[in-house]
Amino acid sequence: MDSLSDSVPKLTSPSDILLSAVIISFVRRSPPGPPGLPVIGNALQMPADRQWLKWHQWKQKYGDIMKITVLGQPIIILSSLKASKDLLEGRGNIYSDRPSAVMAGELVGWSRGLGYAQATQNPRFREFRRAFHQWMGPRACESRELRDVQERENLRLLSRLLSDPEIFSQHARECTSSTILLLMYGYPPHIGDPLRLVKIAEDAMLGFARASEPGRWWVDSFPMLKHVPSWFPGASFKRTAKSMRRDLDELYDVPFKFVKTEMKKGIFEQSFLSKYLEEHSMITSPLDDFEELAKAAGASLYSGGAETTPSALTSFILAMVLYPRVQEKAQAEIDALALGRLPMIMDRNRLPYVSAIVKEVWRWNPSVPLGLPHVVNQDDEYMGYHIEKGSIVWANIWTIMHDEDTFPNPSEFRPERYLDPENGASEIVESAFGFGRRICPGMYLAENSVFLAIATVLAVFNISKAVDPVTGEEITPDVEYDGFISHPRPFRCKIQPRSRLTRDLVLEQAEVLKV
So where does heme get bound (predicted)? Predict the structure, then answer.
């Protein structure tokens, strides 16, 4: 009779070893997902934009945890708050890094900053977080100095809406840029902008948004393509990346040189960067890692807010056009305070309905519907599924914010969702800022800026549908969004002062503050 050991086949040949690997891969059950094609996987099923909507459709069939592959790269899509928090927060020690992001990170250069920096075993990442917490953490955002800048620049927004309301989206973008440039560099772009910093920053941000779009660049799936010379046929991405990198280099260098020059002259405005340079006594020191980090911190702050805040403000205006009852209710709450002045950040707790509008803006159209990608740095198991090392992990924030169980009738703009503190809706909306170690460090600054803009616009203006000059009929805008940083498609509306009193309130305060 043969022994038991003799009856067990021995894996000695390469084919046996390969077969055993295949068997193990089947035993380790991968998350479900749409079937793909050999080699290219699901590449042809990836839309060029608004990927979150396609992934939302797939969730209905495949569930909260899906897997797709693009040219051999495994991608995990998380479509529930629980899965996103369990992995990206609960297991943040292995899910907090970024994928290599060859186009955006390496070729364009955004890996120098916070957004694409690796989080684990990276001293620079910790220094970034420390600096941002010091500059704009919850305590810093309570400072009068910081709020004065936000309120003065917001007054500039109101003044521009009075004089030229039709280009409201442009005003939102310019005033957001102005606020960030003042806070970060002490640079006042509204006085002629001699350094063209607004244009430099806008160009760099356009490059960031384009370079970060999932599935857009073949080089992200085939990293070896980064070695192809730019003159080679089909290598136009190299020329595009070179142009984007030039824009980013300007965003790094121009404002940094401005601050150092002003500090040497002794005529500088206090800013995040000037305080950082003073802290490290760098005014006359040679270039070193602190200087590079300071440049990167400025670019990271700008990239985090320059497009997302205008997106939120434009979404708010769209919502007020479509939901006049919400506008009326908020205005009644503001009027009941009888402030005799414009609302300020310190009034936030006294305006719960207006604060609920802010939360609903974050939910209704998350400015970055997919956030930024994570990568898992070791094999993992979750809910019976095997997640292999090196998988790119996306949280579909748009789907989380449109979950019908949590937010009934999710396409409806309804601030009342947040008036019951026991239902947990407010905490869920915070996920619009990301998860765990990668949560947006400018969250408190953004919340204050958006609250201030919304409260003051509601106090001063009525927002309504535009009227067709030919037919005389009201124009109802569509709720459609585009872009990796998601903005409403252009729409028309009517923005008018509620009364002569509210108009004069803006003009008088602008005169006092020389805005």
Answer: 440
Q: What is the pLDDT along the chain (515 residues), one digit of tens a residue?
A: 444 344 444 545 555 555 554 555 545 799 999 999 998 899 888 887 889 999 999 999 999 999 999 888 899 999 999 999 999 999 989 998 888 788 888 888 887 776 666 666 666 777 777 878 888 888 989 999 899 999 999 999 999 999 999 999 999 998 898 898 899 898 887 677 778 888 888 888 888 888 888 778 788 877 888 888 888 887 888 899 999 999 999 988 998 999 988 888 887 788 888 888 887 764 454 456 678 888 888 888 887 778 889 999 999 999 999 999 999 999 999 999 988 899 999 999 999 999 999 999 999 999 999 988 899 999 999 999 999 999 999 999 999 999 999 999 999 999 999 998 888 888 899 999 999 888 888 889 999 999 999 999 999 999 999 999 889 899 999 998 888 888 999 999 999 999 999 999 999 988 887 77
Q: Do 282 and 373 meet the contact criterion of CB atoms below 8 Å apart?
A: no
Cα angle value 33/35/41 (rounded, 5°): 100
Give the structural domain span for 245.
36-513
Q: Does residue 459 lie in a domain region?
A: yes
Residue 19 lies in a domain: no
Say how many domains are in the chain.
1
Q: Is residue 449 part of a domain?
A: yes
Strands 73-78 and 392-395, sheet pairing:
parallel
**Binding site annotation covers 175?**
no
Q: Is residue 8 part of a domain?
A: no
Report the CATH number at residue 488.
1.10.630.10
Residue with tokens 């607004």: 198
